[in-house]
Write a structure and sequence with these properties.
Layout: E1 5-19, H1 26-32, E2 39-53, E3 57-61, H2 68-76, E4 83-88, E5 92-95, H3 108-118, H4 123-137, H5 152-165, E6 170-173, H6 182-197, E7 201-206, H7 209-215, E8 218-223, E9 226-232, H8 233-244, H9 253-262, E10 270-278, E11 287-289, E12 294-302, E13 310-317, E14 322-327, E15 341-348, E16 356-365, E17 377-378, E18 382-385, E19 410-416, H10 422-434, E20 439-446, H11 451-463, E21 468-473, H12 500-503, E22 509-513, E23 517-519, H13 523-527, E24 536-540, H14 544-550, E25 560-568, H15 569-574, H16 577-587, H17 595-604, E26 611-613, E27 620-621, H18 630-637, E28 641-643, H19 660-667
Parallel strand pairs: 3-7, 3-8, 5-6, 6-7, 11-18, 19-20, 19-22, 20-21, 24-26, 27-28
Antiparallel strand pairs: 1-2, 1-4, 8-9, 10-12, 12-15, 13-14, 13-16, 16-17, 16-18, 22-25, 23-28, 24-25
Helix pairs in contact: 3-4, 3-5, 4-5, 10-11, 16-17
Length: 671
Amino acid sequence: MNKNIAISVKNVSKNFRIPHQKVDSLRSTFVGAFHKKTYEEFRALDNVSFEVKKGEFFGVIGRNGSGKSTLLKILAGIYKPDTGTVKINGRISPFLELGIGFNPELSGRDNVYLNATVLGLTKKQIDEKFDEIVAFSELERFIDQKLKNYSSGMQVRLAFAVSIHANREILLMDEVLAVGDSNFQSKCLQEFRRYKKEEKTVVIVTHNIGVVQEYCDRGVMLRNGLVKFVGDADELSNQYIKQNIYDVGARSEKEHCERKNDSLNDPMVAHVSAIEFYDSENRRRESFGSGEDLKIKIAFRIKQKKKRINIGVSIFSSERVYLFGTNTIFDHFKIINNEQDEIVEINLRKIPLTQGVYYARVVIVGEDFTDILSTVRQSRNIYIQQRNRCEGLLNMDREWKISEEMENEEVSICFTIDKNYAEHCAVTMTSVLHNSKSNFHFFIVSNNLDQKEKEYLRIVQKKVRDCKITFIEVDIKNFEDCHVPEGSRFIIANYFRLRLASILPHLEKIIYMDADMIANADLKELWNEKFDGNYMMACRSMVYERNSKRLGLSKKTPYINSGLIVMDLKSIRRDGVEKLFTEYQAYNPDNLVNVEQDVLNLVLVNRTPGIKQLSQQWNVELRTDIEIFDDYKKFVENPYILHFITDDKPWKKGSRQRYGEKYWEYKKFLQ
């Protein structure tokens, strides 16, 4: 079995024996004992084959009785297939029918231990996870009550909490999730995303096409125990809609034929013979996306001469809710009566309907709606699919954005320093505040700042202008695996920036700055830069060719300087990027001359998504150790951020830095 395959199902069939004789009394039981019992073979699954890859969110969809739950129970090992093979590569946590693995006479607490034991956890493991399980289920107040006193929704919460904390590689999920409330369903779906991020596998049985479209990578459609389709989620949804579009309240073909024959004897003056739906490219369709253009074509015949005729069209939901109506009178559209078969069409632009089943009704009238010429004709059903989520009947075209006029938006800036750089960090903060009117929140991450250094940094709030300052203490033990070359200018605090997504879990975005920088422009402009799908934004190092060569990268690789980084913390957390940094540090410590900066480049440069290159003006390296290249001098002449990158710092005696006076210009505000 391929190691990338989590589940392999080949030629699986399953039959059940259904007795013909119904026993409903003691007498029937006694008499029936002397008669030969007869059975009918019911094939629940018929030669089913598919594979689920590791890390996939795989949907199993189909109508009631299609074999979905039987398949899931075979995967869980509850049933054995009559023929065929099932191979599972990983430990399974099944969440199937309500009540499986639970005892209603025991308390919720006892049932946690019972069900977790069934799933293979030891008592020690359950003890360690118990508080997390109860907190996830939100049943703290009821955990010592008997399970039989729980509502079905409470039982679902407890069962799912145990399943999800069993920490197995494969989660099997039946549509019993529908019993939970919307908040709990949202919580469950967040756990699915976590499973996917950790490359675990989720197999979910559902009727809900929206779940398939939003969460599934691929899936299988079953009908009467047969596989009708296996493939990607979008096509799976389309196939399911095509198979079932007319099953929800639609007329049978026989009814349509009867109506067509009845038209010959229709006593009304006019007759609507057909109502069909087309897209903008004139293709007849049964399903449309919310927001698509929809064309309704109406075929009709007027049996006698009328001075004027009009047509009315109404749209209804499958629950018969009247959503929209118009007619040729309202829209000033004239129809000429030629006493022959005619087709008229109405174009509905960007239909704003939410996901569901809908139909149209059409009627023909004369000069006004008091002169009814035809019976009301109802169309077949159409299905509206919806990508984005909303509630209600209408899916309005919409866009959210932060107003550009919002001057009060807070800009978050982070420094990772030790006590030796507290004074210089305050100068950097002062330069940021002097070059912008925006509101700033500074996060200062350190492992050894004492009260004296913190009070000095707070002078910025008193003597420059109001801003927020938050101090975050990190445990240096969590960075013992970080390598710092002996005798170098680097410190452990350099590595803190690689873990800001974890250190600042409440933030989605941050600007990281070294404390040997001076802002010379409004950092709000940098804050408004777009990531374009990348994890970070940074500037190329002035000596990028030298560093790229040292690391064995292409000479043209844009080796970045990590002194200024704009980070998309949300996507870094989502994709587990910090783990990549940690793994590289552990396996390649001797390669890291520039410590965390080398890690960033080796892991993310030339990667998609990776690091977006900013204009060089946002991190102008001021070097006195080498001659500045000619093509770099233009940035030195007009810098947005000055970076005193070498040991020749402006606060050191005898400094030769070109812009050293800028440091002292802002330093005086703190005195």
